[in-house]
Amino acid sequence: MDRLIEILEDIQPDVDYENCTNLIDGHFLSSLDIISLIAELEDEYDITVPAVEIVPANFNSVEAMRKMIERLQEEF
């Protein structure tokens, strides 16, 4: 998941992604950051993030994003 952290750092470099568990709730990522992130994740991991998956719980931490990515990869 090093690539996931690289993607996040390209979008918002001043966050400790390895330890932060409130990326959305703590306002570390804006709505525009999330839109950019979703586009990057879809390209990088060959997934489609449906609207129902765009909830804070799936984007509050790297671990939550990793689980969402794995789940979406398994569905296809």
Helix-strand category: mainly alpha
> Which stretches are poorly predicted, pLDDT < 50 over at least 5 residues?
none
CATH architecture: Orthogonal Bundle
Q: Biggest sheet, open or closed, and with what strands and sense?
A: none
Verbal overview:
This protein is mostly helical and 76 residues long. The protein has a single domain, classed as Non-ribosomal Peptide Synthetase Peptidyl Carrier Protein, Chain A (Orthogonal Bundle), CATH 1.10.1200. It is built from 4 helices and no strands. The chain has helices at 2-11, 31-45, 56-59, 62-75. It is globular, with a radius of gyration of 11 Å.
Chain-wise SSE layout:
Blueprint: H1 2-11, H2 31-45, H3 56-59, H4 62-75
Helix pairs in contact: 1-2
Primary descriptors:
Non-ribosomal Peptide Synthetase Peptidyl Carrier Protein, Chain A, globular, mainly alpha, 76 residues
Q: Summed up, what is this model?
A:
With 76 residues, the protein is mostly helical.
